[in-house]
Amino acid sequence: QKEVEQDPGPLSVPEGAIVSLNCTYSNSAFQYFMWYRQYSRKGPELLMYTYSSGNKEDGRFTAQVDKSSKYISLFIRDSQPSDSATYLCAMRAGGGNKLTFGTGTQLKVEL
Amino acid sequence: GAGVSQSPSNKVTEKGKDVELRCDPISGHTALYWYRQSLGQGLEFLIYFQGNSAPDKSGLPSDRFSAERTGGSVSTLTIQRTQQEDSAVYLCASSLQPGGTDTQYFGPGTRLTVL
What we know:
The complex is a heterodimer. By secondary structure, chain A is an all-beta fold. Chain A has strands spanning 4-6, 11-14, 19-25, 30-38, 45-50, 54-58, 61-66, 71-76, 85-93, 100-101, 105-110. In chain A, a hairpin with a 4-residue loop joins strand 7 (61-66) and strand 8. In chain B, strand 4 and strand 5 form a beta hairpin. The mean pLDDT of chain B is 93. Chain B has strands at 5-7, 10-13, 19-24, 31-38, 42-50, 65-69, 75-79, 88-95, 105-106, 110-114. By secondary structure, chain B is an all-beta fold. The A-B interface holds A 4, 6, 8, 32, 36, 41-46, 49, 51, 88, 90, 95, 97-104 and B 4, 31, 33, 35, 40-45, 48, 50, 56, 58-59, 91, 93, 98-99, 101, 103-109, 111.
């Protein structure tokens, strides 16, 4: 069993929809949680970075962490075709350096 | 400013040949990471360099893989006697300093195809 599980999709939604992306994890040592966005043939770029349980909002994006359930989510409001990409969750243990990634969810926002 | 750069962007090689992949981190970043992204596998950690400390090689899949970082800047990942299962995108990332809430910035990757 992988340390981080993420539904690979693909997920297709109409423009303007609210998108929910999720990851579960098994390692209690994970303390830092990230969401990266990766366009085709590009490197991942950081979208959101959270440390504590709860919600963090940035524009149309909200990251949610529930450490008790070992579950993290990314919500995208008013989705746009430009949001079409692969979304990767990533985690790091406290005091650790390497990131452990989910497999990524491929999202397509259609006009 | 300039981001992380990697070269070549694409590499096609024959099974059994050696390949070298290069990473130029963001200037001033002390930490450098290599990851591998295979279809359906997500990104897997390979190796981590921090300053003059001994690298963390815990993610290297076999002794055919090695990496070095010269002068605390440029890094080279070498794969000897390549196998078809080595085909993947190799991504390099750098961060200002490790730990805490440091952000890893990724390069565009090198797409390696082993025939």
